[in-house]
Write a structure and sequence with these properties.
The protein has two domains: about 90 residues, Fumarate Reductase Iron-sulfur Protein, Chain B, domain 2 (Orthogonal Bundle), CATH 1.10.1060.10; about 80 residues, no CATH class. It is mainly α. It has eleven helices and no strands. Bound molecules: iron/sulfur cluster (SF4) (2 copies). One iron/sulfur cluster binds next to α2 and α3.
Length: about 180
């Protein structure tokens, strides 16, 4: 099956409708840090450039903010396309061009799975250990802790069992596909 068809099946979108007006990339808050940007990445999906798309850091840099979808004249929800591409990349064990980003994503999701909410200090500490990037941003992190912007200990959300169930349901859905 062609890459664009797989993406359509996973996302519920119709990426072949894109006529490359570039409005999505013009409004994307992280496009400047991306390798291709949403418009060009979508074109690569249409052309079936599977390896370059799935290896791209762009699919992990996308913040899912939906600014692109809100601007698209063809109502393509590109955030959903990015979700579908991340699913394909993980499923196929593709090594991304910027491995620290999916590591960040994995840690973020696991912390929320176990506590029901985000704990920034755990995320920063675990990410530094995993990436061996131990000293970058430490002064800024200390400032945030000293000013009370980041709690030292994680708090458990009251609804954490419901959150964990959401994960289980999502994983069951993915395994069924
Ligand atoms: S805004 Fe929509 S139609 Fe325009 S380039 Fe982006 S995805 Fe394609
Ligand atoms: S959802 Fe992703 S690609 Fe779209 S504007 Fe936001 S960060 Fe950019």
């Amino acid at each position: 099956m062609a890459l664009w068809q797989e993406v359509n099946d996973l996302s519920g979108e119709q990426v072949q409708l894109c006529y490359h007006c570039h409005k999505c990339t013009a409004g994307c808050p992280v496009a400047a840090d991306m390798q291709y940007g949403p418009d060009a990445l979508l074109r690569m999906v249409q052309l079936g450039q599977r390896e370059a798309v799935l290896r791209s850091a762009d699919i992990w840099l996308c913040a899912g903010c939906e600014a692109c979808g809100a601007r698209c004249p063809n109502d393509i929800d590109i955030a959903r396309m990015m979700d579908a591409l991340r699913v394909l990349a993980v499923r196929e064990g593709v090594q991304p061009a910027l491995p620290s980003v999916p590591k960040f994503n994995t840690l973020f999701m696991e912390i929320v799975r176990h506590t029901g909410r985000m704990h920034e200090l755990s995320l920063m500490g675990l990410h530094k250990l995993w990436t061996l990037n131990l000293v970058a941003d430490v002064p800024a992190g200390l400032q945030l802790i000293l000013k009370g912007k980041i709690p030292l200990l994680p708090e458990m959300a009251g609804a954490r069992k419901e959150v964990a169930r959401l994960y289980e349901n999502a994983e069951e859905g993915i395994n069924r596909e």
